[in-house]
Design goal:
globular, single chain, alpha/beta, binds zinc ion, 303 residues, binds coenzyme A
Length: 303
């Protein structure tokens, strides 16, 4: 039944690794991504074509794409911050990109050094060039449920930005709780308003588990018919320099819950744990995913 199909967008290699302070060798990133695809993930955000000084961890975006084996069933995508990034992505043969802005002006200014209005004008030619080159374009809206600088963000702010991204030509929107403050009540209130204005089939929800509410928030999304969720293998993500900040919703925890509820994702959880294990061996902290840690202990995998 189509309604029980859920799409997972695995953003660990990008949203996750961009926050890791230990530099991961390109070959290990490629093994990680191949293992994610082997586990059945069909949409994977591989890297980001930003200036290497902005995010040194992702400076090898070209090399990662070059080494990845093409798989007709897997959509590999990349984040691009500007036209320069798009040109690099096109040269690397990338078929799907993501652009990003936010629901709160101050956050956007800190992230990309322009106002929210400027960011929309800045991305307009990027989206139009990407579309005319035949690419799919995803638009991220960050800080929809709260901003580290401005605090509460109204539903209208995020929805208006999402509408403008659709007008620019984005195929899909990822609605982000960047700092992990949303509660199921916030998501409920937001969706009730948003679904009067935005097309359900083009909405993805992107939760961080900073305050332990990410999976509960997904449940609210499911009840409203959302069927696309972003997550990171092992729960990678979060800022290693901010004590207590935790990562994205973990793909393992999400899939475990979804399968138990009768939803189909196409992902093999045992294989996903093995993929996360490739990265666990590289980084300087434990992966926060609860499912991953339970499975690791059961299978006697080292930390
Ligand atoms: N890839 C490689 N080099 C790039 C680049 C890209 N995508 N974009 C710009 N550059 C280079 C330019 O060629 C220029 O080089 P030069 O000084 O040798 O001429 C230099 O970087 C500065 O370019 P400029 O256009 O002035 O960019 P900026 O310094 O104003 O940066 C952004 C603006 C948006 C590109 C930058 O703030 C950014 O990438 N932010 C993204 C942050 C991010 O990824 N956050 C996480 C995602 S949520
Ligand atoms: Zn995120």
């Amino acid at each position: 039944m189509a309604d029980l199909q859920v799409q997972i967008v695995e953003v660990g290699p990008r949203d996750g690794l961009q926050n890791e302070r230990v530099r991961i060798p390109t070959a290990n990133k490629v093994s990680f991504i191949e293992a994610l695809a082997d586990a059945g993930l069909r949409r994977i955000e591989v890297s980001s074509f930003v200036h290497p000084k902005v995010i040194p961890q992702l400076a090898d975006a070209e090399q990662v794409f070059q080494k990845l084996r093409e798989r007709p069933s897997v959509r590999y995508s990349a984040l691009v911050p500007n036209m320069h990034g798009l040109e690099r992505a096109l040269a690397a043969g990338v078929k799907e990109i993501a652009i990003f802005t936010g629901a709160s002006d101050t956050f956007v200014q800190h992230n990309i050094r322009m106002t929210l209005a400027q960011s929309l004008a800045h991305f307009a030619p990027v989206v139009s060039r990407a579309k005319s080159a035949g690419l799919s374009v995803r638009g991220y809206v960050s800080t929809v449920f709260g901003c580290p600088y401005e605090g509460k963000v109204s539903a209208d702010q995020g929805i208006s930005v999402a509408e403008k991204l659709l007008d620019l030509g984005c195929d899909e929107l990822s609605i982000g709780d960047t700092i992990g403050v949303a509660t199921p009540g916030d998501v409920e209130r937001w969706l009730v308003i948003a679904l009067k204005r935005l097309p359900l089939s083009r909405l993805a929800l992107h939760f961080h588990d900073t305050r332990g509410t990410a999976l509960a928030n997904v449940m609210v999304g499911l009840q409203h018919g959302v069927r696309i969720f972003d997550a990171t293998a092992g729960g990678l993500g979060g800022c290693p320099f901010a004590p207590g900040a935790s990562g994205n919703l973990s793909t393992e925890d999400l899939i475990y819950a979804l399968h138990g509820m009768g939803y189909a994702t196409g992902v093999d959880l045992d294989k996903l744990v093995l993929a996360s294990h490739i990265i666990a061996a590289q980084i300087d902290h434990l992966l926060p995913s609860r499912y991953y840690q339970a499975a690791r202990v059961q299978a006697c995998l080292p930390e």
